[in-house]
Amino acid sequence: MNILICPVCKNELFFENKTAKCENNHCFDLAKEGYVNLLSAHKSGDSTGDNKEMAKSRRDFLEKGFYSPLASAVGDCIEKYTAEGDSVLDICCGEGYYTSYLTQKYNRVFYGFDLSKNMVRLAAKRHCGAKFFVANIASIPVKSGSVKLAFHLFAPFHSAEFSRILSDDGVIVTAIPGKEHLFGLKKVLYDKPYYNDEKAPETENLELIDKIRVKSTIELDSKQDIKALFQMTPYYYHTPSEGMSRLDFLDKLITDIEFVLLVYKKS
């Protein structure tokens, strides 16, 4: 089964001899790592999304299992809402940690994509059996109605596009920060740390059917891990220099992590 379509003409893609091609002969070469770039021709994906250093830093951090409670909770949703052989799509997959974690536990057909070629390259290098591709979340090169479950962790929410790709009985699992997510980090960065509002994304095409709370505490004992966590957050782009300076002096950080998984189906 293949759910990918040509980003130019929207016809099905066929894979042969390290090339993805549609019936109109639009061709997309597979990279040596095995992924395919399905962005528009004028957007290579090299300069979009996280750079190579940030991608590797994120990979190394997640590989230590700090966010494994979130990966496990997504797995519970896969077990509940899908069956063997169903298609599962990791939207904005990053360096592939979550998909790699899940392919080891569930016999599904996994796909993953990200806007950043640097991220997708690292994801493909995992060789976990998933098919990875570079694409834009606003125009996902996937057949309408072909995805049984999609998961979407901390990325922009495109309700109409998500609804289009889901099968009639499909669901999308999205994660938002819980009230106390990374509050320990915020106490270092800000003079007046704030709680997250747990605001769900706005949607007219999808109906909320389940809400799952995931909470744990992590302890980081190296400057490298603290920096990697910081780079993964929006605070990396909005923190005053005073807060960043305080973070530089830390050798250890203990903080809560808290996620809210929201499960939607088509309205």
Describe the protein in words.
The mean pLDDT is 93. The protein is 28% helix and 28% strand. With 267 residues, the protein is α/β, with parallel strands linked by helices. The two termini are 26 Å apart. The longest helix has 14 residues, at 68-81. It contains nine helices and eleven strands.
Largest sheet: spatial strand order: 4-7-6-5-8-9-11-10
How many strands, what sense, and barrel or not for the largest sheet?
Answer: 8 strands, mixed
Roughly how much helix do the residues carry, as a percent range? 25-40%
Poorly predicted regions are none
Give the number of helices: 9
As an assembly, this protein is: single chain
SS class: alpha/beta
Proportion of residues in extended strands: 25-35%
pLDDT average, as an integer?
Answer: 93
Number of strands: 11
Radius of gyration equals: 19 Å
Distance between the termini: 26 Å
The H/E string reads EEEEHHEHEHEEHEHEHHHE
Outline: globular
Note the main attributes of this structure.
9 helices; 28% strand
Task: Describe, in short, the structure shown.
The protein is an alpha/beta fold. The protein has helices at 52-63, 68-81, 97-103, 117-124, 159-165, 183-189, 223-231, 235-238, 241-248; strands spanning 14-16, 19-21, 27-29, 36-37, 87-91, 109-114, 131-134, 147-153, 166-177, 206-220, 253-266.
List the helices and strands and how they pair.
Layout lengths: L13 E3 L2 E3 L5 E3 L6 E2 L14 H12 L4 H14 L5 E5 L5 H7 L5 E6 L2 H8 L6 E4 L12 E7 L5 H7 E12 L5 H7 L16 E15 L2 H9 L3 H4 L2 H8 L4 E14 L1
Parallel strand pairs: 4-7, 5-6, 5-8, 6-7, 8-9
Antiparallel strand pairs: 1-2, 2-3, 9-11, 10-11
Helix pairs in contact: 1-7
